[in-house]
Design goal:
3 strands, 3-stranded antiparallel β-sheet, about 55% helix
Length: about 160
């Protein structure tokens, strides 16, 4: 998978600095979120995964002893968006043999789930490199701090693990 946009036109902001300062943050934050999520979901879909299924496999990879179903869905409560069906995706992963459910109700990643997770994790790393192309870490951190401050300023509620 090629992650470089070097064959497309070079990046140029939509407006000069004076024009950007009056642009609506809600529009641009939403447009960025939609573009990035669409890119992620398209890439994961090519591997036969939804983004919620990826979240499940990812968090199971970090906790080999597994998760209780309610515990995991509670932990991921901020992640799903409109149209996502996290419980349905968990059921699908179990039905596909990528996740098993122990007798005590713990969700565990299977060997085939681990293999698919490994391929999806490599793809996610490529996608992250693509999104971050031309953006120094310091600018990325600053952008997140600015967005988090805006969320705070309007008494929003957001958290990512």
């Amino acid at each position: 998978m090629t992650t470089s946009n070097s064959t497309s036109a070079p990046f140029a902001p939509s407006h000069d600095d004076a024009g950007l300062v009056v642009q609506p943050i809600g529009y641009w934050a939403n447009a960025a979120g939609q573009a990035v999520v669409r890119n992620i979901r398209t890439a994961l879909g090519a591997l036969g995964l939804t983004q919620p299924a990826w979240w499940v496999l990812h968090h199971l990879s970090e906790r080999p002893e597994g998760w209780g179903r309610a515990e995991l869905t509670g932990f991921l409560r901020y992640y799903p968006g409109p149209g996502d069906d996290l419980p349905g995706d968990i059921d699908s992963l179990v039905a596909r043999g990528l996740v098993s459910e122990s007798e005590d109700g713990r969700l565990l990643r299977t060997e085939s789930g681990a293999e698919l997770y490994s391929r999806a994790a490599a793809r996610q790393s490529e996608l992250r490199r693509q999104v971050h192309e031309g953006i120094p870490d310091e600018e990325y951190v600053r952008a997140l701090k600015v967005l988090q401050r805006m969320i705070h300023n309007v008494r929003g509620d957001a958290w990512h693990h």
